[in-house]
Amino acid sequence: MTAVTADPLGQALAERATLIQLCMYALDRARSTGVVERLAEGLSGIGVSPLRPDGTRFDPALHEAGGTLPTDDPALDGVIAETEVLGFADRDRILRPPIVTVYQLRRQ
Q1: pTM above 0.85, yes or no
Q2: Is 1 within a domain?
Q3: Which of 45, 49, 71, 46 lies closest to 58, judged by CA?
Protein backbone atom coordinates (compact mmCIF):
# COMPACT_ATOMS: atom_id res chain seq x y z
CA MET A 1 0.00 0.00 0.00
CA THR A 2 1.31 3.46 -0.96
CA ALA A 3 1.22 6.37 1.47
CA VAL A 4 -0.83 9.36 0.34
CA THR A 5 1.07 12.64 0.55
CA ALA A 6 -0.46 15.89 1.68
CA ASP A 7 1.15 17.74 -1.24
CA PRO A 8 1.05 15.68 -4.45
CA LEU A 9 2.29 18.61 -6.58
CA GLY A 10 5.28 19.14 -4.30
CA GLN A 11 6.06 15.44 -4.40
CA ALA A 12 5.80 15.35 -8.21
CA LEU A 13 8.15 18.34 -8.51
CA ALA A 14 10.64 16.75 -6.12
CA GLU A 15 10.51 13.49 -8.08
CA ARG A 16 10.99 15.44 -11.36
CA ALA A 17 14.07 17.15 -9.90
CA THR A 18 15.47 13.77 -8.83
CA LEU A 19 14.92 12.30 -12.31
CA ILE A 20 16.59 15.32 -13.94
CA GLN A 21 19.62 14.89 -11.68
CA LEU A 22 19.77 11.19 -12.56
CA CYS A 23 19.59 11.97 -16.29
CA MET A 24 22.38 14.59 -16.00
CA TYR A 25 24.50 12.03 -14.16
CA ALA A 26 23.86 9.43 -16.87
CA LEU A 27 24.54 11.94 -19.65
CA ASP A 28 27.93 12.81 -18.11
CA ARG A 29 28.93 9.14 -18.13
CA ALA A 30 27.33 7.84 -21.32
CA ARG A 31 29.80 6.58 -23.92
CA SER A 32 27.29 5.98 -26.68
CA THR A 33 26.42 8.95 -28.91
CA GLY A 34 22.93 7.49 -29.32
CA VAL A 35 22.37 7.31 -25.58
CA VAL A 36 23.63 10.88 -25.13
CA GLU A 37 21.31 12.12 -27.88
CA ARG A 38 18.31 10.25 -26.44
CA LEU A 39 18.92 11.58 -22.93
CA ALA A 40 19.35 15.12 -24.29
CA GLU A 41 16.12 14.81 -26.31
CA GLY A 42 14.23 13.55 -23.27
CA LEU A 43 15.49 16.39 -21.08
CA SER A 44 14.73 18.92 -23.80
CA GLY A 45 11.18 17.58 -24.00
CA ILE A 46 10.55 18.64 -20.41
CA GLY A 47 12.25 22.04 -20.69
CA VAL A 48 15.78 21.13 -19.61
CA SER A 49 18.46 22.26 -22.05
CA PRO A 50 22.21 21.65 -22.16
CA LEU A 51 24.44 24.70 -21.87
CA ARG A 52 27.46 24.73 -24.19
CA PRO A 53 28.51 28.41 -24.35
CA ASP A 54 31.53 27.98 -26.66
CA GLY A 55 32.43 31.27 -28.37
CA THR A 56 30.58 33.51 -25.91
CA ARG A 57 32.11 35.84 -23.34
CA PHE A 58 32.86 34.25 -19.97
CA ASP A 59 30.48 35.33 -17.20
CA PRO A 60 31.28 34.02 -13.70
CA ALA A 61 27.59 34.31 -12.79
CA LEU A 62 26.74 31.77 -15.52
CA HIS A 63 29.90 29.73 -16.06
CA GLU A 64 32.55 27.99 -14.00
CA ALA A 65 36.14 28.37 -15.24
CA GLY A 66 37.93 25.05 -15.40
CA GLY A 67 41.06 26.42 -17.03
CA THR A 68 42.54 28.92 -19.42
CA LEU A 69 44.02 28.75 -22.90
CA PRO A 70 46.64 31.33 -23.87
CA THR A 71 45.94 33.49 -26.92
CA ASP A 72 47.72 36.30 -28.72
CA ASP A 73 44.43 37.66 -30.07
CA PRO A 74 43.05 40.45 -27.83
CA ALA A 75 39.55 39.87 -29.28
CA LEU A 76 39.52 36.35 -27.80
CA ASP A 77 40.56 37.41 -24.29
CA GLY A 78 37.75 36.31 -21.95
CA VAL A 79 35.90 34.28 -24.60
CA ILE A 80 35.01 30.65 -23.90
CA ALA A 81 37.24 28.35 -25.96
CA GLU A 82 35.41 25.13 -25.13
CA THR A 83 33.00 23.51 -22.72
CA GLU A 84 34.65 20.88 -20.54
CA VAL A 85 31.45 19.75 -18.76
CA LEU A 86 27.98 20.57 -20.03
CA GLY A 87 25.80 22.77 -17.90
CA PHE A 88 22.02 22.49 -17.74
CA ALA A 89 19.13 24.91 -17.39
CA ASP A 90 15.55 24.09 -16.50
CA ARG A 91 13.85 26.73 -18.59
CA ASP A 92 15.45 29.93 -17.24
CA ARG A 93 16.87 28.43 -14.01
CA ILE A 94 20.44 27.15 -14.10
CA LEU A 95 20.66 23.66 -12.61
CA ARG A 96 24.39 23.30 -13.14
CA PRO A 97 26.73 25.87 -14.69
CA PRO A 98 28.94 24.63 -17.51
CA ILE A 99 32.62 24.17 -16.71
CA VAL A 100 34.59 25.94 -19.44
CA THR A 101 38.06 26.74 -20.71
CA VAL A 102 38.53 30.47 -21.28
CA TYR A 103 40.93 32.21 -23.63
CA GLN A 104 43.36 34.43 -21.73
CA LEU A 105 45.59 37.00 -23.41
CA ARG A 106 49.19 35.82 -23.26
CA ARG A 107 51.36 38.16 -21.20
CA GLN A 108 54.26 39.49 -23.28
Answers
A1: no
A2: no
A3: 71
